Amino acid sequence: MIIVMGLLVAGFLSFKVGDVFAPWTITLLVWLAMLLLFQVQGDLLYPLGDQFLTCLLLWVPILVCTSLITYYLLPGAPPDEESTPLMSRRPAFNDVLFNFLYFISMVITPLYLYKIMKVVMMFDLSDMLWNLRILAVYGDESYGFLNYSYVLNQVLLVVAFWEYPRVPLWKVLTIVLASIMSAFAIMEKGMLFFLFSSMLYVLYAKRVIRMRSMVLSVLSVVLVFFLINIARDYREDADPNDAMTFLDFFGIYVMSPAVAFEQVQEDLTPQWGSHTFQTVYLFLARWGGDYEVNKKLQEFVWVPLPTNVYTIFQPFFEDFKYKGVAFFAFFYGVFSGWFYRLARNNNGFGKCVYAMVVYVLALQFYQENVMLSIVSLIQFIFFTYLVMQQDFGITWRSAFKKKTDAPPTEAGGRTEIEM
Length: 419
Prior knowledge:
By secondary structure, the chain is an all-alpha fold. Helix content is 61%, strand content 2%. A hairpin with a 3-residue loop joins strand 1 (301-302) and strand 2. It is globular.
């Protein structure tokens, strides 16, 4: 498997079949790195089992082939637009809606953090970071509209990265700061990883950085996440002997999900797709339906280090066993191949959404982030489309110019509407 994956990666990159951020390349690199790590640090955890390897043999070929076929079946950009930079196309970026969402985010993000800190400050301040994480995991308080700060900051982040310098640097920095505040509010590394992966993807696509810089950046961020984890798990009364070493951290967060997946079993409950579609059942249960809602927080298992993540295969295998893994590999392939084609066609909306796809694919060794977070993903796509409009544009001129009887004008092959 290592040899075949290595040859495929080398072939794709040598013959320029997409780039390093293509869905087939990311998938191969993620699982190739995982298998190589087990060759180097195989004694850190229990060995990989047949259940994981069988799913891997289903997942990788189906996702790679499906994403490639989807990408090449969809039409490419017209010759006159193929080399046109994103910032040169109009009307792609809706600054009115962007500024409106930016204003909302700058208001609700500090309020969201304040509300959470207000609760945490009631307890011992020396354990503040630990209490923040406990509140995020086990707390049942709802912050209403303030919860939108997380997804709004994700949208603003990728749009600002792509649209710089049309989005000024000071505004980009405030969005980055707001994103860090959102991550700090729940002591969650996902937002930081999204920030990091999106920045790498955009900078590489804009040819600001090269492969060497990306490798150094990945190593640096692993070290940063290790330090964050130490700070998050620190408690004043903790035993120093329980402190996590770097190898423990690496084993728990990178290698352990593949081993832990061996302990995942098919769920024989009569509710169809209860793990894969748990967000849907949660929504139906809130509306009075009699449905079982699985907890998002998984049970811990020992491999022999403790972990509660089981790779991207986990919900599909629990609900539908191997055929579920195969089907959702097909789904992921179509989904990622489609948005990669949009991104390569210089479609602003597609480029922004594909930043989320990069994040999801890069974490497939860790957990599933599409079906289990489908509501957040739909919100992200919706808000991104509002800001990166490819079909129509709304400008500030509507507030200062009178309506005319002139028909809408064409701009770059798209219709610009004056309200």
